[in-house]
Specification:
Elements (H helix, E strand, L loop, with lengths): L13 H21 L6 H8 L5 H6 L3 H24 L5 H18 L1 H12 L7 H20 L8 H13 L1 H7 L5 H16 L4
Helix pairs in contact: 1-2, 1-4, 1-6, 4-5, 4-6, 5-7, 5-10, 6-9, 7-8
Length: 203
């Protein structure tokens, strides 16, 4: 079948792109509700309003490819959101506040997507390796090095501090899953304040 697996062997039509997006959205909702291992093509097809699972197979070679597209979609949405959030910062301290605040806001506003992503991660649906860790923390490392060079930040190991900040962000989806009514605005304020105090140069 020419388009099997979303193939990329030819340019996709607008209709195919829309159907793939529809399937990905249904997969995100299904995984968030049922969990990664329990989310079947039958459930996803029903959620997407498809007549059969064959329509999923027409666009995606299998579950691995569909899950890969789910992960890419969520991370692309996060990347786009953060690009907008970071574009007007004029200092390293401002960049750090925007980075923390933007990530927290995205997680809070996209709880279903983050729950699905967490379930996929915990279920082994994608690998978080050394390259993934470097990709996650390198923007923070750049912020810290720039701030140290400008005299805004004190002397510390940018890798260690970047790891600490990223873990504070990565832990929020788990917290929201346990406590849906958690004060996210308060969490953002405390994390921003904590790392502002931890990084600022002594006057």
């Amino acid at each position: 079948m020419q388009a099997t697996g979303g193939a990329g062997r030819r340019a996709r039509t607008f209709t195919e792109q829309a159907r793939r997006a529809q399937i990905v959205a249904a997969a995100i909702t299904t995984i968030a509700e049922a969990g990664y291992h329990n989310a079947s093509f039958a459930q996803i097809a029903k959620r997407a309003g498809l007549s059969s699972t064959g329509l999923i197979s027409y666009h995606f070679a299998g579950k691995d490819e569909l899950i890969g597209e789910v992960v890419r979609t969520i991370l692309a949405d996060l990347g786009g959101y953060m690009a907008q959030r970071m574009q007007d910062v004029s200092s390293a301290a401002g960049a750090l506040r925007a980075y923390v605040g933007g990530n927290v806001e995205f997680i809070d506003g996209h709880r279903e997507q983050m729950k699905a992503l967490t379930s996929i991660f915990l279920g082994g649906g994608f690998t978080y390796d050394a390259a993934s860790e470097q990709s996650a923390t390198s923007p923070l490392e750049d912020i810290f090095r720039a701030g140290q060079a400008a005299g805004e930040f004190r002397d510390f190991d940018p890798v260690v501090m970047a790891t600490l900040v990223q873990r504070a962000i990565d832990g929020l989806p788990f917290l929201l899953d346990m406590r849906p009514g958690f004060d996210v605005a308060g969490y953002r304020r405390e994390v921003v304040t904590t790392f502002d105090l931890a990084t600022r140069a002594q006057s």
